[in-house]
Amino acid sequence: MACAEALRAGRTKYGPVAGLPELRKAITVKLWRENHSEYAPDEIVVTCGAKEAIFAALQVLIGPGDEVIIPAPYWVSYSDEVLLCDGRPVIVATAEAQNFKLMPEALTQAITKRTKLLILNSPCNPTGAVYTKAELSALAEICTREGIWVLSDEIYEHLTYPPAEFVSFADAAPGHRERTVLVNGPSKAYAMTGWRIGFAAGPKQLIQAMLSWQGQVVTHPTTFAQHGAIAAYEGTQAPVAAMKKAFQERRDAMMHALEGIPNLGYSRPDGAFYLLPNVSAYLGKRGGRRISTSAELSDYLLDQAHIAVVPGEAFGTPGYLRFSYALGLPDLREGMQRFAEALRALQ
After folding, report:
1. How far lies 3's CA from each of 195, 228, 309, in Å?
2. Are strands 180-184 and 88-93 parallel, antiparallel or unpaired?
3. φ, ψ for residue 324, nearest 5 deg
4. Domains and CATH numbers, the chain
5. Are 268 and 255 in contact (CB under 8 A)?
6. pLDDT tens figures, 95-119
7. Entry pTM
8. Which of 32, 173, 196, 224 could form a disulfide with 6 if both were Cys (CB 3.0 to 4.6 A apart)?
9. How far is the C-alpha of 138 from the C-alpha of 203, rounded, in Å?
10. Are 311 and 321 in contact (CB under 8 A)?
11. What's the CA gap between 49 and 43, in Å, rounded?
12. Are 94 and 117 contacting, i.e. CB atoms less than 8 angstroms apart?
């Protein structure tokens, strides 16, 4: 409604590079109300989606040869965006037994003199892992000691399922504020994926550098879409709660279906809308052709069962498949039935 009204009112002209003042103000209120973190409007930049916020931050922070620590499994764009900035992605494997969370010992071992940044994603795409406040604080202590920046991608914050609770990195590590970049946006919580509105919050000097980059690359985020984002942040949050409940029901249905399939492990997702089953027991089998990798298994499932999944190779974790439960329960149950039947057909 707000976006339609903005279009009818002709709010389609150029706007401020940093985003509309009203939206930046609404974001500061949201960060204080929901994340217990105080930011001024000039410490906020509105971007063309959270992805652009991440890339803008990397552009101004990362130089040739700088290392960026990325826990795996990771969202597919992280490593490539680092490479586009002439940086070096340092991929640190995490364990299914530890819910795919980065442990302080692993972080310490990955740090070198070239380490510039750690990327965290909680709730995580593709694992659904959600870090506790104590876990974030432990990682922050290391980063503070070593002078390392932290980029915290919090785009799935509102899709966190009890008993898990979302904690913003800025709330868990207030002493690291001057080297923290928060990335978020309305795309997931408010089903505004195609609107391409995101934001970054951080120290003023960093935000000003990101503004200089953004102004030359995209000019500013879409004007009328920002009015929709203002309405999302300032309006009733009841639809967000309803959507979260629906996603939790879908998650539970998918987990129930997976528990009926032999030799298939997974880590319980506490957030986002993905589940990452371990399919390594089914590799090396045949389904009309030899299936040696999770990528080949995903091709088999598409060809034979007509279901689409993403192989773990895309997330730096071979031997797994990413399922999304961002669809209705009837389709989800049908897809899981096809998945089980396709695995039974393997020899």
Report:
1. 10, 5, 33
2. unpaired
3. -110, 135
4. 2-235 (3.40.640.10), 239-344 (3.90.1150.10)
5. yes
6. 999 999 999 999 999 999 999 999 9
7. 0.95
8. 224
9. 22
10. yes
11. 17
12. no
- Say which amino acid occupies 104: P
pLDDT (tens digit, 9 = 90+) per residue, 29-60?
999 999 999 999 999 999 999 999 999 999 99
